[in-house]
Amino acid sequence: MRCVSWLLLGTCLLVLGPAVQGAPGQCPSQCHCHGDLQHVICDNVGLKKIPRVSEVTRLLNLQRNNLGSIPTGAFGESKGLISLHMQHCQLREIGSQAFKGLKKLIYLYLSNNDITSIKPGAFEDLTELTYLHLDGNQISDLPKGIFSPMINLFILQLNDNKLRELRPGTFAGATDLRWLHMSGNELTTLQPGSLDDVENLAILHLDRNKLSTYPIVAMSKLRVVEELTLGKNPMRTIPDLAFQSFGRYVEKLYLDNMGLEKFSDGAFTGVTAIKSLHLDNNRLKFLPKSLEFGTLTNLTLSSNPWNCTCQLSRLRRRRWGGACPGLIRSTLMDLAKGFWRYLSLSRAAKVAFPSYPAEGKIMEMPCTAIHIPPPTEPKQWYMGTGRQIR
Question: Which segments cross the bilayer (predicted)?
């Protein structure tokens, strides 16, 4: 009789035990399920293990649990998953074959964990993955070819990690990648060839890193970049032909807060579609001859020690009234042909409006910038509305 009792107890354990973490066809305890198990929500419910969910489940939300790691085969019975959320799960490492079997997965969110490393083969089977979020971790290195299974990857978020360099082959296989975000890392160099596999990038964010020189060789294979952010990198100069390879496409350039002192004369050669250019909070005195203003609608120049000798000739040709650029700042404008929309100009190069302007008279234009002999010729003045003051 004792043997029978133990046998029955064992049977009960076999039936009920797995239900604690969920069994296929059942909603895991502590979780909320919707749409016949298609959406399984286990947000902040104290889980320490990854629950088993049905093959019919399309979305699994495991945010804010103390999971620590992802065992190999953890999602073996979840082959129908399309969206997997594992933010704030205290994950420390992504092991090999962590997502094996998830061949339909499109969205993978691993943001704000403590991930320090990603093992080779970690992303095996993720051939349909399109959106990968790894921002807010401690990743310092990306193994060569780590993204190679992701032939459909479109957006990759790597902001706020500890990456120090990019090497050739890092993005091998991810040829469809269009948005690459690497802001807030510790990048000191992009090795030549490191971006060759993602030549179709449209958005590249590299701001808040430690790049001291513009990575012209690494960038030379990029063809269709529309938005590039480099702000808050300690660069002093931008070289000739810096943006030429994607000059026909680039519309937004962020080169602010860099301590930037100089553009080479040919830095903007080939740039023909620029609409928004941010140069504020640098050490610039002049603009390069290669910078054309014909397509610009948003130009930010504030907090630079501009030389106010009217050598900013390109601005002058845009009917700026012949005065140095501090004439009008932070104002909505309606200048020649309506090209300009917003303009923010230097607080370090202010020009005072004359108290009593008169046509044909010489006007004094006091300016706080350095190395400024006062102009000695009559100037045309424009108010913020673009109306000439006579």
Answer: none
Residue 306's nearest CA partner among 233, 221, 371 is 371
Residue range 302-306: mean pLDDT, rounded: 89
Q: Is the distance from CB of 71 to CB of 92 less than 8 angstroms?
A: no
Min mean pLDDT across 159-168, 213-222, 243-252, 341-350 is at 341-350
Q: How many CA atoms lie within 13 A of 184 on its CB side?
A: 12
SS3 track for 312-374: CHHHHHCCCCCCCHHHCCCEECCCHHHCCCEEECCCCCCECCCCCCCCCCCCCCCECCCCCCC
pLDDT at 68 > cutoff 60 = yes
As given in the structure block, the two tokens for residue 25 are: 């066809």
Compute the distance between CA of residue 354 and CA of residue 363 in angstroms, rounded to an integer: 7
Q: Which two tokens stand for residue 72?
A: 């190999």
This prediction has a pTM of 0.79
Q: What is 184-237 written as a DSSP string? A: TS---EE-TTTTGGGTT-SEEE--SS---S--HHHHTT-----EEE-TTS---E
Q: Two tokens at 309?
A: 């000798």
The span from the CA of 190 to the CA of 193, in Å, is 8
CA distance 109 to 143: 20
Residue 52 burial (10 A CB sphere; 0-12, 13-18, 19+): buried
**How many CA atoms lie within 13 Å of 24's alpha carbon, on the beta-carbon side?**
9
129, two tokens: 């993955």
More confident residue, 315 or 47: 47
